[in-house]
Amino acid sequence: MPQNILKKTALVMLLVLVLTACSNPVAFLKAWLNEDKEEAVIDVIDTSGQQVNASGLRDTILYYKDNNGLLIPVMRKIQWPEGRGIAKEALSFMIDNQQNREDMAKIGLYPVIPNGTQILGMTIRDGLCKVDFSSEFLNTGSKEAEENLIKSVVYTLTEFPTVSEVEFQIEGKNIDNLRHGTYIGSRLKRENINYLGRKPAADTVLVYYENIDSNNPMFVPVTKPIEVIDDKSDANILDVLDSLMVEPPSESGLQSRIPVNTKVIGVEINDSIAEVYLSEEILEIKKDESVFERAVQSIALTLKEHYKNLTGVKIYVNGKIIASKNGEEIYPISYVNPY
Predict the structure, then answer these.
(1) Same structural domain for residues 134 and 246?
(2) Which of 34, 60, 146, 270 is the most exposed place for a label (fewest CB within 10 A)?
(3) Which pTM was predicted?
(4) Whole-angstrom Cα distance, residue 105 to residue 108?
């Protein structure tokens, strides 16, 4: 038997053995044939903390924008392809095509990735997600739109627990700046979403307000500059909540349910529950239970940014616990803006 036939026979037998041993031989073969594009995506995204219903839909946080250009996280149930392409599938729901546009218009939001954009490739390895977009990704109308585009992609991808940084490519090439000057020439992390300051600050905090929408207000993560005093190196949790108690600027498109002059007396974290001690002003909204619960939820979401395992909040005024209308002492932390 000629030597080249022996080599081919051996290769076929080896493939048969490998594919037989794999739990998903089709996915393995596809990955082997196309390893440059998506080899690192396979079995890298950790989905163990995601809720899955009977139809295979999974809870996934995606970032869209509202009429004021604020980026809004939305918990959507989307079908994730088995075995690979999970993060790529998530981004496909953010492209400004007709279906996504009509879908998000129902809740007053808009997709941020320019129409016609294709996701040409993606790899995820050691916390870094490299994503390659087609040239349509550059089709934004302003520097603000560019910055929102980049932040929405970075924040969406870093919602996955195995992604901490994002690197952008356009048509397979690394570039330093987009058309309106937004820098993408290095690995990017979560930073300054919906920034309220007029200039960069050394110290910032992240709090949750609501956008102004009479039909469907949503919780909004907001970055605020803060002055850290007393030679502290970082803002502590009291600084964060004190910043939340300050109303957002009227022109920001944001609102707060928390009454003006409400003060934070103290915070204690016991296991997965936060005990928050507030001044009497918070009781001004207790007569409207829905408003009170949304105020508590903004506090809870803000705290969860710093204590990831937090599951609920207790509210105290003058040492007395303030229960819900159903008599529950713990206000559970719900998903941010479920859709």
Answers:
(1) no
(2) 270
(3) 0.83
(4) 5
